[in-house]
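Example 9 (inverse folding). The structure is encoded as follows.
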C-alpha cells in the first residue's frame, strides 16, 4: 500500500496528509522491541545506581516509560536515534512501505535526512504543560534547518508507535498555508514561528493510529500538544528528500536509502552509519543546528 492519487492531491493542496495503516506490526515490532530492551537496560543501570526503586517490569510499552520517568527523568537521557544507534532503528529508516510512500512525494532517488527523532512524550503531569522540549511549539520544519535547505523537497514523516490521540498529545497542524513559504522563527521555549507571523487559520488536531503516518511539507506549521494520559506517547519523526539536495544540517550524516540510478550508493552498513554519527556528534559539537538562536 502506498499513497493514493487522492492522498497525493491532498498533500499538494494542504501540505499534510495522513496515511492510516501504511505500516504493519511486522514493520514496527523490531523497533519497539529495541526500544523496550534499551529502556530495560537503562532502568537496571539507574536501579543499580540507586536512582529508582521500581523497575516497573510487566508494564506495557507505553506505560513502563511513564512509570520509570515518574521516578527519575534520567531514564530518558540518551533516548534518540542518533544516540542509541540501534540496528532495528537503522533498518527501519529503509522501511519499504514507508519509502514507497515517500517515493511518491520526492521521487526515486531518496536520501534520509539526519533530522530524525524518537520521542517518548511523558504525561504532562510529570513534565508541566509548558515544557517546550516535549510540547514542541508552532514551527515549520524549515525553521529547524539552515537556509541552505529552503528549496530542498524535504518531507517529514511523523509516525506513532502507539495510537496518537488528542488526549496523549498528537500533532496539530495548519493545513493549506505551506504555499506562503517560510515564516520567520525565533527562539522562545524552542524554535517557533514569530507570533505576529502565525497564520490566522484554525489548527487541526491530527490523531493517527499506530501503523499510520503523517506526511508534512517543510513549510507546514505544526506543534505537539500536552499528553494528558497516564502513558508515554511514543513516536518517530523522520525526514526524507531527493538525493543531492541540501539537508540544512550539513554537519550531520545524511545517506541514500533508495536509488534506481545507483543502487550501490544506498547505505546498508549499520556499523558505518554508527561511525558517521559518532564522528559527527564530536565534530559538530557547538554548531548552531537551527537557523535562529
Ligand atoms: O513529536 C512531537 O511531539 C513533535 C514533532 C515535531 O514537531 C516534528 O516532527 O517536527
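The amino acid assigned to each position is listed next.
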Amino acid at each position: 500500500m502506498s499513497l493514493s492519487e487522492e492522498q497525493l492531491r491532498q498533500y499538494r493542496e494542504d501540505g499534510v496528509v495522513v496515511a492510516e495503516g501504511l505500516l504493519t506490526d511486522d514493520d514496527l515490532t523490531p523497533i519497539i522491541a529495541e526500544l523496550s530492551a534499551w529502556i530495560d537496560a537503562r532502568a537496571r543501570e539507574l536501579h543499580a545506581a540507586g536512582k529508582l526503586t521500581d523497575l516497573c517490569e510487566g508494564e506495557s510499552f507505553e506505560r513502563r516509560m511513564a512509570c520509570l520517568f515518574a521516578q527519575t527523568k534520567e531514564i530518558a537521557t540518551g533516548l534518540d536515534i542518533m544516540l542509541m544507534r540501534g540496528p532495528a532503528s537503522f533498518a527501519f529508516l529503509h522501511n519499504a512501505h514507508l519509502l514507497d510512500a515517500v517515493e511518491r512525494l520526492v521521487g526515486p532517488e531518496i536520501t534520509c535526512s539526519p533530522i530524525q527523532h524518537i520521542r517518548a512524550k511523558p504525561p504532562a503531569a510529570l513534565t508541566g504543560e509548558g515544557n517546550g522540549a516535549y510540547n514542541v511549539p508552532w514551527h515549520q520544519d524549515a525553521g529547524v534547518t539552515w537556509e541552505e535547505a529552503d528549496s530542498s523537497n524535504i518531507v517529514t514523516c511523523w509516525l506513532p508507535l502507539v495510537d496518537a490521540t488528542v488526549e496523549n498529545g498528537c500533532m496539530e497542524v495548519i493545513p493549506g498555508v505551506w504555499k506562503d513559504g517560510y515564516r520567520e522563527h525565533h527562539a522562545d521555549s524552542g524554535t517557533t514561528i514569530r507570533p505576529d507571523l502565525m497564520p490566522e487559520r484554525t489548527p487541526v488536531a491530527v490523531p493517527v493510529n499506530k501503523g499510520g503516518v503523517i506526511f508534512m511539507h517543510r513549510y507546514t506549521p505544526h506543534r505537539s500538544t500536552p499528553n494528558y494520559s497516564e502513558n508515554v506517547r511514543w513516536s518517530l519523526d523522520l525526514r526524507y528528500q531527493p538525493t543531492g539536495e541540501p539537508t540544512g544540517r550539513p554537519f550531520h550524516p545524511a545517506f541514500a536509502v533508495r536509488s534506481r540510478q545507483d543502487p550501490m550508493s544506498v547505505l546498508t552498513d549499520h556499523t558505518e552509519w554508527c561511525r558517521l554519527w559518532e564522528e559527527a556528534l564530536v565534530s559538530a559539537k557547538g554548531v548552531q543546528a537551527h537557523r535562529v538562536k
